[in-house]
From TrEMBL:
Cellular component GO terms, alphabetical: cytosol
Lineage, broadest ranks: Bacteria, Bacillati, Bacillota, Bacilli, Bacillales
Name by which UniProt lists this protein: Thiamine-binding protein domain-containing protein
Domain Thiamine-binding protein: 4-97
UniProt cross-references to SUPFAM superfamilies, sorted A to Z: MTH1187/YkoF-like
Disordered as annotated region, ranges: 82-101
Stored Gene3D superfamilies: 3.30.70.930
Organism whose genome encodes this protein: Cohnella abietis
UniProt-listed Pfam families: Thiamine_BP (PF01910)
Record-linked InterPro entries: MTH1187/YkoF-like, Thiamine_BP, UPF0045_domain
Length: 101
């Protein structure tokens, strides 16, 4: 299982606001047939699942701003793919929180 941080930035939209685009991109996650978890954050979206599923979803997410009038889209992806043990978004947070005590 992989955890991926994805940031999709529409360019050439005529406005500095991107919330409309973020909402449209988020719809892809909400309607996804793939078995994934997701968490919207103020600066990016974190998704968790099998890597091949995540990459398929990201491809669809990347297209959304174009479909909504953006002239250019910049997508940044960070992949955390640990193979020695199962890792989840919750487990990663719990591990840090335990060390903060």
């Amino acid at each position: 299982m992989a955890i991926v941080q994805v940031t999709i930035v529409p360019l050439g939209t005529g406005t500095p606001s991107v919330s409309k685009y973020v909402a449209e991109v988020h719809q892809v996650l909400m309607q996804s047939a793939e078995n994934i978890k997701y968490q919207l954050t103020p600066m990016s979206t974190i998704i968790e699942g099998e890597l091949h599923d995540l990459l398929e979803v990201i491809k669809r997410m990347h297209e959304v701003p174009f479909e909504n009038g953006a002239l250019r889209v910049s997508t940044s992806i960070t992949i955390d793919d640990r193979r020695d043990k199962q890792g989840t978004m919750e487990q990663k947070l719990q591990s840090v929180e335990e060390k903060l005590k």
